[in-house]
Structure formats: structure tokens, C-alpha cells
Amino acid sequence: MPTDPHFIVNPAAAGGRALRWWKYALPVLQKRFGRISFAVSNERQSLAELTAAAVTAGHERLVGVGGDGTHHDIINALVHQNHTDRITYAPLPLGSGNDWCRTLRVPRHLIRWMQVYQKGKTINHRIGKLTFGAGAQVQYFINVAGLAYDAEVVRRSANLDWKHRLLYPLLTAAYLPGFQPPKLALKYDSHTIEGRFHTINLGIGRYNGGGMQPVPQADPTADILALTYAVNTPVNRIIRNSWRLFTPTIGEMEGVTTTHAREVTVTGPTGLEADGEFLGTGPVRAELIEQRLRVVCGWPA
Q: Per the database record, which ranges form the DAGKc domain (predicted)?
């Protein structure tokens, strides 16, 4: 049975720059690891199909090459196919934001990444489940899910050609003054909050949007979701405190609550994104699943 790392490459990551990077990285990886195998997704073979094929071939160590959306697709495939207990997963960050890897302290620089990989440190990473929409669709997430304004920014940015880690923060600032916060009902554990929500974030990882920290209280190994929400908050207050999104202090802003929850439901007219991918609309239920994934990382330091 193969035990060498098997790389699954998303050539569309980082606005298409990933394929060029991979051509330069492959000889370096082969020199360090010796024998490796890899597969590159295309129009005929999706990341999910390549993941299934890799597991069927007996690979137990998968390396996802791409950004948060790449890891989202691969991990969804592993969960849907009930393969999380058989796999050790190593993210190689090559996207625009690489926010999941910020929490995990996985470096983007290839030489430093290889050092982290060869140390072999792993954690049993939690996985979130989202049930949403009128048809009760299901998606899994590994980092952060966002509703209200966060989902709207992701929806608007999805078709833009320019991909950069600053795209999300720039669009966040550009769209905020004209955004009408939806009237929602948020329920978690024994709490019910109704009002106009600018944002609701559910976190396993701490970062999203190119380095912002909406859920600084998140822990990828914890048995509980991190929850941050802003309700009935004037837009001028949000703008004045926007710097807090790049620090762990967002919970110190009046109108913002940072807490934890075992199960969260949101009803009302809202979009939903997870790991930087727009998924659809509410209602939404979020929870952790029993399955965990062994992830190679540098967390905690």
C-alpha cells in the first residue's frame, strides 16, 4: 500500500497561478521526498473525483495543493465517502487567502512547508456540518462559515478575475456602506437573538477573508464551534472598529458577541459561505460531526 505523499493539485487556485508554481515545485519535492505521485484536476476530473481515486489506490497521506476552496472540496469528498479515518491530510497553501493554514501555522514557503511536513506533527481536526436551504442541502467546512455580509462579499467576488489576499478586505470596505443587514433569528444552545445582523461567523479556524480574525476564540481541536455575531450595529461603528478584524479584539466592539455553541440555527433571508465558497441561502443549521481528520500542521506553536 502506498505510504508516500500523494499530491492533489488545483491548477485554478490563486487565479490560475498554481499550475505555474507546481511546475517549479515538483522537482524540489521529488528531490526531497524521492518518489511521489500527484494528480491535477481539470474539467474532466474534479478534486472530489481525484480524491476518491487516490483513496481507492491506497494512498493514506494526501497533500492538497491550493487555497481554502481546494481544501474545502477535498475534505468534503473525504467526509462524503467516509474516508476521514483512513487519511492523513497535509494542506500546501497556494491560494489567494490561505486562511485555514494561518490558524494551523502551515507556511506557504515550500522549503519551510517541507520541514513542517517531515516533522509529522498532526492534530485531530474537527469538521463542521452545514444544513441549509429549502432542500436541506449539506456541506462540510473545515475553517470558517459566514452569513449575512460575509456571504454577500463572497458571492459578489466569486466571478471576479482578480484573485488576491487583499480582495476580500477591499470588497468588504467597498460594499459595507450600502449593505442592508437582514432581519434574522439566531438560536444557539439556550439563546435566541432576533434583529438585523451584519455578520454571523462560525469558526473551527480563526481566520478568513485574507487574514481577518472574525472568530479569534476558535480552536480546531475543540468539541464546540466558535460563534461571533454583530446585531443591530450602526455601520459607522463598524467602520471605526474595522481595524479590530485584523486583531483578536473584535469581541471588544459594542454590538459584537464572541462566544461558543454546540449547535447554531439561523432563519431569515441570508446567504451562506464556507471556506471562502458561496454555498446558497438560509435557513442554516451548523454543528460539528463526530468524524475528525488527522491534519499535518504546526499548531499549536
A: 1-135
Alpha-carbon distance of 28 to 5, in angstroms, equals: 14
> 208 by DSSP, 3-state: which?
strand
Task: Name the band, by pLDDT with cuts 50, 70 and 90, for residue 1.
Answer: very low
Does 160 share its domain with 269?
yes
User: What is the percentage of the chain residues whose pLDDT exceeds 90?
Assistant: 70
Number of domains in the chain: 2
Question: Strand 293-296's sheet: what is its strand order?
Answer: 37-40, 6-9, 61-66, 88-93, 293-296, 122-125
pTM passes above 0.70: yes
98 shares its domain with 142:
no
Domain holding 239, by residue range, is 128-288
Residue 105 contacts residue 297 (beta carbons within 8 Å): yes
Together in a domain, 37 and 70: yes
Q: Looking at the structure, tell me whether residues 280 and 133 fall in a common domain.
A: yes
CATH value at residue 239: 2.60.200.40
Domain contains 301: no
Q: Taking Cα atoms as reference points, which of 265, 266, 263 lies closest to residue 289?
A: 263
Whole-angstrom distance, CA of residue 98 vs CA of residue 71 = 10
CB of 246 closer than 8 Å to CB of 212 = yes
The span from the CA of 75 to the CA of 139, in Å, is 10
The answer to whether residue 293 sits within a structural domain is no
Give the residue-averaged pLDDT of 75-101: 92
Same domain, 74 and 215: no
* pLDDT of 119 higher than 50: yes
pLDDT of residue 19: 87
In degrees, rounded to 5, the angle at the alpha carbon of residue 253 between the alpha carbons of residues 251 and 254 is 115
- pLDDT of 130: 98
